[in-house]
Structure formats: structure tokens, C-alpha cells
Amino acid sequence: MAVSALSSRLLLLGLNAARVTCAHLGRPGCVFSNARGVSSGRALRTEERVTVRFIDRDGKRISVNTITGVSLLNIVVDQNLDFEGFGACEGTLACSTCHLIFEEKIYNKLLNETTVADEEMDMLDLAYGLTDTSRLGCQVCVTKDLDGMVVRVPEAVSDARKTSDKDSAS
Ligand code: FES
């Protein structure tokens, strides 16, 4: 599907295709393959409507209706969710500010679908409040299997780019 045709469909669904990206090449279910919004050239699956429930830093639950094939980062951006500092590097795997904490069953489901790339693991090591079920929101794309999942935004955010700036200055 051409990007413009996809844009039209997403706009009908109230989503902005320009922001529908996924940083990690080849992630199953992602509409696009990189942060610049370049089409992967793979045939798109038929998207289906799903619900994602976020728990923000204040413990407030936010339910979002979206479609399969978009990353959690894109959902946060497209829905204007007010998670301060979230997604600072726009999905280029450079900041770790898109750190999210998953329910164990969902985390395991994600692991069954795909392995966590070394680059994501490296960035997760720099995330604030890392848990056993942490992932980066820019690397997780929504599939039908994940419908209704709950993801928690950590209490604080840590931007790996700023940490490395400090390290190199000292
Ligand atoms: S948005 Fe920066 S690593 Fe995900």
C-alpha cells in the first residue's frame, strides 16, 4: 500500500500516518520499518482495532483505541498522551525515555513473537526503574494478541543521551 493511501485510511481512523513509525526493522506487525516513516515494502496486514490501557505516572488509567501495526510510541504521540519526556529520540533507539512496564503475561507473549534486539537491551539498561518486564515503547508494535493489554509508564524518565553527555564531559 502506498504511504498516501495508508495516510488516508489512518486519517479516517483518526490517526496521523506521518507519526506512524516503528524504529526496529522487521518487527512483526509494524506499519513502517523505521523512524523516518519509510515503508518497509512488505505487504501490510489488514489492521484491526485494539485497545491499549496505559497507567500514567500518577496512577491514572488511560484507555486508547488504536489499530494493529503501530508502535506504542506512536500511540502515545498520536493520542497526545501527556507523558512528559516520553519518546525523546522519536524511536531511533537513542534515549530510553519510551520505557514501559508490561504485565508478565503480555511480556512473555511479546517474547514468544520476537526476541529483544541487543540495541534495545542496551538502551533498557539505561532506563529509569528497569523491571523484569520492561520494554521500549518504540520497539513494541501492537498486534491483535495484545488487545486490552495494560502498560505502565515508570515513575520517572531517564534520557540516555543526557547520561552519556554527562559521562563524556567528566
Ligand atoms: S523513543 Fe528513544 S529509545 Fe524509544
TrEMBL record:
Gene3D superfamilies: 3.10.20.30. Its cofactor is [2Fe-2S] cluster. One of its GO terms (molecular function) is metal ion binding. GO terms for cellular component: mitochondrial matrix. Residues 1-22 form the signal peptide. InterPro entries: 2Fe-2S_ferredoxin-like_sf, 2Fe-2S_ferredoxin-type, Adrenodoxin-like, Adrenodoxin_Fe-S_BS, Beta-grasp_dom_sf. One of its GO terms (biological process) is P450-containing electron transport chain. Keywords: 2Fe-2S, Electron transport, Iron, Iron-sulfur, Metal-binding, Mitochondrion, Signal, Transport. Residues 48-157 form the 2Fe-2S ferredoxin-type domain. It comes from the Eukaryota. It is found in: Mitochondrion matrix. Belongs to the adrenodoxin/putidaredoxin family. This is Adrenodoxin-like. It comes from Astyanax mexicanus (Blind cave fish).
